[in-house]
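Researcher: Quick one. four chains, 438 residues in total.
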Amino acid sequence: MKKYLEILKKCPLFRGIAEDNLLRMLTCLGARVTAFDKKYTIFAEGTPARHIGIVLSGSAQMIQVDYYGNRSILAEVVPSEIFGEAFACAESRNLPISVIATEPCEVMLIECSHILHTCQNNCGFHQALIFNLMKDLATKNILFHQRIEITAKRSTREKLLAYLVLQAKNAGCDSFEIPFDRQELADYLEVDRSGLSAEISKMRKEGILDSRKNHFTLL
Amino acid sequence: MKKYLEILKKCPLFRGIAEDNLLRMLTCLGARVTAFDKKYTIFAEGTPARHIGIVLSGSAQMIQVDYYGNRSILAEVVPSEIFGEAFACAESRNLPISVIATEPCEVMLIECSHILHTCQNNCGFHQALIFNLMKDLATKNILFHQRIEITAKRSTREKLLAYLVLQAKNAGCDSFEIPFDRQELADYLEVDRSGLSAEISKMRKEGILDSRKNHFTLL
DNA sequence: GGATTTCTGTTGAATTTTCAACAAACGGAG
DNA sequence: CTCCGTTTGTTGAAAATTCAACAGAAATCC
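Model:
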């Protein structure tokens, strides 16, 4: 576990927890690390939601796929970030979403009941973890608001612009990388891929933005 | 406060808390009750996010309004439900949304810092409240997933059907009321109102559903 | 390094949505 | 009961999205 310490220290679940205590805590929580190949399904829709995942390396996406196979990407998860916590904490029966690896990745899995319910050893850190979980869930909530604000727009152009402006703001710079290829961006914005490509070309011609692969610049 | 006890007991924030303790707790938290007229803005976008609201009577909506005045309805809030907790808990600077009364309503307002940070009296209930807040935030998260699953559909008909099927499931019956008028439903589904009306008529003619005002029946 | 697969941009046609405008239905106030 | 403002349904035209198909570019695999 030791080699993951730097990543784990940045994880919102462990904020404010001393490094010395972290390793012991992980043992008590029964944390285990699993590696997944690219495209592997880490959590499958319809399966019980018991674990919280922490990305240690690589990256993953939370996705929903409907009847007709339309995919929508709910979020991108990168190292030190958590996923699955909402379902595990709400003790919902089955996952309504899937989490898939977008690159080979290592994930730490923790059974959520080990966090929520005080253990036999009577460790004192459960309260801190629950507080951190609450903060994390509140933050995720706000991220969903942002996503809805973007996808609520009625046209491809407006959605794209709203998304790019937000990314620029997060990056603190008008030139930045996005974590999606074209199809993924379309699945995040809930629009047609070819229409999105066309719109990007059009905006480039109009001098609104510049793009090269997944690097964008707002002009 | 006493007359609100029945509503408050059902509030997820106070789950598991003995009735005897509730009133004392509210005093310690500095809870106050405010009445709002219909259409009144309870929380305004852009203002600091410090309070959690609990609806005691009437109802309210969380809404976002963009540049061009397009409204989207994020959620309907009814008695015993909480609003604003995500922003208050995440200690976000300013509200990205507004909450407006859809009927005359009474709301209990609690400053979130009073919940999150232990008070001088050293009350023992903060941990319980934080745990309840965490559960609530996890549940809200899942509700957002459901909303995204609905609005991610590409056509008005699919959105409407996904919404109605979910409502039927929640009601446990194929015949149910929805909390929206047509314009509000359109703003929730992120579609055009007239197109929505047309689609409903069409589906009625096709024998897929029946509707009378905001009462729907799936056939 | 070459072959193969995946990704991206383009196009035109078909389908849908949006928009604007209006009339009927409804509900509340006086 | 009547008036008046709001809500709902309808319509047609304009605009936009989706869909399918393809070709070139890029990345991956052996």
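Residues 2-125 of chain A form a domain with the Jelly Rolls fold (CATH 2.60.120.10).
Researcher: Thanks, that's what I needed.
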